[in-house]
Amino acid sequence: MTKSLLDARVAAIRRFNRFYTKQIGALQEGLLDSEFSLAEARVLYELAHADGDSTATGIGTTLGLDAGYLSRLLRSFEERRLMQRRPSSADGRRSNLTLTRKGRNAFTRLDASARAQVATWLEGHPPADQRALVTAMESIEQVLASPESRRGDVELRAPRPGDMGWVIQRHGELYAEEYGWSEHFEALVAQIIAQFMHEHDPARERCWIASLNGTRVGSIFLVKHTDTVARLRLLLVEPSARGMGVGRTLVDACLQFARDAGYERMTLWTNAVLNAARAIYVSRGFRLVREEAHTHFGSEQLGQDWELEL
Amino acid sequence: MTKSLLDARVAAIRRFNRFYTKQIGALQEGLLDSEFSLAEARVLYELAHADGDSTATGIGTTLGLDAGYLSRLLRSFEERRLMQRRPSSADGRRSNLTLTRKGRNAFTRLDASARAQVATWLEGHPPADQRALVTAMESIEQVLASPESRRGDVELRAPRPGDMGWVIQRHGELYAEEYGWSEHFEALVAQIIAQFMHEHDPARERCWIASLNGTRVGSIFLVKHTDTVARLRLLLVEPSARGMGVGRTLVDACLQFARDAGYERMTLWTNAVLNAARAIYVSRGFRLVREEAHTHFGSEQLGQDWELEL
DNA sequence: ATGAATTAGTTGACTTTGTCAACCAATTCG
DNA sequence: CGAATTGGTTGACAAAGTCAACTAATTCAT
User: Fold this and answer.
1) Distance (Å, rounded) from C-alpha A205 to C-alpha A266?
2) Is the alpha carbon torsion for B73, B32, A66, A109 positive or negative?
3) Surface-to-core class of residue B228, CB atoms within 10 Å of its CB (0-12 exposed, 13-18 middle, 19+ buried)
């Protein structure tokens, strides 16, 4: 990556941090007239959401609080009869922390008022902004969350409004960005999809959209080539979701469906530069049957026909 | 809006706030081994970026700091020879604050190390994630920034890779969401666009994409109906950009182009529910020439043909 | 099995950060 | 002109956070 691009991103992130520091400050003013400080409210939240099996150290590390500070904070909770400690049976040093009924009530009240405050604030923005906001926040969380926790399950589903356009859009953008392909490629994709939407036999032709945590991350189409030969088209996996087996899942869904629909063979056309896709085809038993150079998408490409007996 | 939708959004925002509170905490640990506290660093930033004409109260309100706290903080800056006060000529109560050379140097060092820290952190994420992150952050800022500051200029441009897919996608999503139209509408849009991409005469047919701060916010197409009659199609304005004259700008570009291209008349087909679009057509002199009910998109609609002598 | 190292948690001493009310002096408003 | 407001300072104080030293239970290495 170029230095200037990284610099620009760093600047954008620092700007956002400054901006959101103020934002969070504004939203947390509601705590001022509650009986809890910000740190207390955060701890209370953790206690309420891991009820029974939270320990002081656990809370300390998740919230990044100093052990000493937390210790005093917890003692004050105990003195206010909001929380109880039970010595851990497994480890004599540890205590298990549970909210008392009073503590749970206090949390419920606090939570409700915080929710109401955010709701009021949110209602001051037009619905379209609200949606944009939530989408953007979710995408930030997803990117920054640890790789383990972001491995939500990839789900395959039937297309919904906007999905077909998305497939065209992402094909156009990604192949232009990664391989420099011209607008003729996007035009070809649009042509294929318009044709598919206009008329397809749902019993023998189908499209799947892969989604991860509600975000579109991939697509694949199976269409009829002849009565006995199925054709796989438009396999796409978002860069952000690569290496998670999305492509394999999509191809396997196609194979399964093609077998069930009574096809005897599957064929597909791809290009030699697409290494990741080829690896999947090879692993599923496809064989390369023909290669032909072409320049349909603005540069010299090696088109390939692959086939598989079902 | 339904209650549950608002609730879900509120929950998402609160989750993000908790999440990002930790994130910011982690990123600010770099300050620990500098000579400045977080509050000091923020004030220093403000001083460096409004050099000469910043006042104590101004900084206090932008950063949300208590006047008393800030007063002491500024005195400590003065004692450390980082900053100077000059009494304001306009207002005897005020002082204008300027960083000394030493102060500017200190800021430069601090800024460089903060930037390096963010860069290191950012480089731990794949480029696709970085891009997603920056995009999402910019979109949050844009939504939450004051309405004045977000009125960047709307620009019209020729389509680029992904744009055509985007037009299809947003038509499909928006009309499904706002009017409950079926997938047949997206199919129609895909058909029109596939046709346009496959073959159009750039001298007499054209597409414009409206963009605001680099984000796509609208589209319009002008195609040949007959040699003397132009047809306007696929006028779309993102909800987030409505009320900013995007639609008018797009229609006017079409009218201008059609006149220059030698057309004598312009026609368009729309539906009665689309009030905002109709207002634009009326204001530009279009006349309603025919209405016809249809159910192409899943519900009873009143299709309308409009015309304008150029 | 045992001594060393680590971990969970506490405590005292301390700094930083932030709040509140009272106050002064210059400015603006009616 | 006097009252209200604004920019800024100060004292007193509370909240938030840091650091090092400590105890007791547990784990690890040999």
Assistant:
1) 12
2) positive
3) exposed
Give the distance, in angstroms, between residue A24 CA and nucleotide C15 C1'.
25
B101 Cβ within 7 A of any nucleic strand C atom: no
Collapsing DSSP to helix, strand or coil, B229 comes out as strand
From edge to edge, which strands make up the β-sheet containing A301-309?
Answer: A154-157, A206-212, A215-224, A229-237, A265-271, A301-309, A287-294
Tokens of B302: 């009143």
- Which of A10, A134, A190 faces B9 most closely, judged by CB atoms? A134
In whole angstroms, give the CA distance from residue A140 to residue B141.
Answer: 13
Question: What are the pLDDT tens digits along chain A (310 aa)?
Answer: 567 788 999 999 999 988 888 888 777 776 666 788 888 999 999 999 886 678 899 899 888 889 999 999 999 999 999 998 888 888 888 888 999 999 999 999 988 988 888 898 898 888 878 888 998 998 898 888 766 555 668 899 999 999 999 999 999 999 998 999 999 999 999 999 999 999 999 999 999 999 987 789 999 999 999 999 999 999 999 987 888 899 999 999 999 999 999 999 999 999 999 999 999 999 999 999 999 999 999 889 999 999 999 8
**A286: which residues sit within 8 A by CB, 6+ positions away?**
A266, A268, A306, A307, A308
Residue entry with tokens 């949110």: A122
Instruction: Give A154's contacts (C-beta < 8 A, 6+ positions apart).
Output: A210, A211, A212, A217, A218, A241, A244, A245, A246, A249
Task: Establish whether the CB of A93 is closer than 7 Å to any nucleic acid atom in strand C.
Answer: yes
B173: contact with A, CB 8 A cutoff? yes
Strands (E), B148-205: 154-157
What letters, b where the CB count within 10 A reaches 16 and e where it falls short, cover A274-292? beebbebbeeeebeeeeee
A64 touches chain B (CB under 8 A): yes
What is the spatial distance between Cα B13 and Cα B298, in angstroms, rounded to a whole number? 35
In angstroms, rounded to a whole number, what is the distance separating the alpha carbons of residues A246 and B10? 31
Q: At what angle do helices B101-123 and B38-49 cross, to 10 degrees?
A: 110
| Chain D footprint positions (protein CB, under 7 Å) | 6-12, 15-21, 24-27
Mark which residues 29-48 of A lie under 8 Å from B by CB.
Answer: 42, 45
Q: Report whether A261 contacts A226 (CB < 8 A).
A: no
Instruction: For Cα atoms B80, B86, B90, give the angle at the middle one, nearest 5 degrees.
Output: 155
- Paired with B231 in beta bridges are B223, B267
Alpha carbons A230 and B293: distance in angstroms, whole number: 40
Q: A195: nearest CA in chain B?
A: B191
Q: Residue A151 carries which DSSP code?
A: -
pLDDT digits (tens, 9 = 90+) for B124-175: 888 878 888 998 998 898 888 766 555 668 899 999 999 999 999 999 999 9
Q: Are A127 and B239 inside 8 Å of each other by CB?
A: yes
Query: Which distant-in-sequence residues (6+ apart) come within 8 Å of A85 by Cβ?
Result: A74, A78, A95, A96, A97
Chain-chain contact of A163 with B176 (C-beta, under 8 angstroms)? no
**Alpha-carbon torsion B141, B146, B147, B149, what sign?**
negative
Q: What counts of helices (H) and strands (E) characterise chain A?
A: 11, 9
Q: What is the value of pTM for the model shown?
A: 0.71
